Amino acid sequence: MIQNESVKNLCAITGTGGYVGGCLKNYFAARGWEILELTRRPRPGARAVAFQLGAEISPPALAGVNALVHCAYDFQPLHPEEIRAVNVEGTRKLFQAARAAGVGRIVCLSSISAYDGCRSLYGKAKLEIEKIALDSGAQVIRPGLVYGSQPAGMFGRLVAQIRKASVIPLIGDGSQIQFLVHHEDLAAFIEKFAAGKIEIALRILTAAHDRPWPFKQLLLEIARGLDKQVKFVPLPWWLVWAGLKSAETCGLRLNFRSDSVVSLMHQDPNPDFSPNAAAGLVCRTFEIEKLKL
Fold this sequence. Notes:
By secondary structure, the chain is α/β, with parallel strands linked by helices. Helices cover about 35% and strands about 20% of the residues.
């Protein structure tokens, strides 16, 4: 059913403090949506509800919400039982409240790291979250590496690393494949779905352009965009993993986690992009010249 565009809809978004959630918030707002932020620390004057993954949320907090986009994921827990209690069960509580509140459309942001046979704790947690989402009637989106003209998130960290250094540590041989999606393409599809402008037969879609980028080649492309010459120092992935794991065991919180190394080294060998065109999900080719880094 097509929504009347003259009517302002209300979209609740979790994770607006993060890169993807923030991009979605701005995109929806620019297209006339009212935004209800579900956030740990509501800003004064903002339309927001205090929300933390793992905690209870009451259905009245979502009263009047037309669509819910769940982007939040808490990376602080490191052990499987803690990850499940916060992220998996936290998502269950959120979706139960959304259904009780009569929210019409729900989108769950998963990850391309989630696939049958994945090894990372993050990927496994996302698979559990996907099952909850599907049981709730939600649309599941598995984004690739999200990028844009104002780099942030993981892509932003890669850009920052290359901008400040000419010698770059490389985990493994750099052959690990990345698939990329521009934040505007991701946001455009989610907004259309939330507005009821498209109907999708498949409840799990992988959102990325189908061109594979070996990790080393991607770093070289970013360096070219920054007009920099870089030199790589290959590091055995297991050594990097062991160092990060030791630091985490000692209570240190680093920007890159040992579990992220597992995700990088053990990726989905056959992501399926074939349903995207029919679903209306169009992802542009990654072109470094257009980013103006």
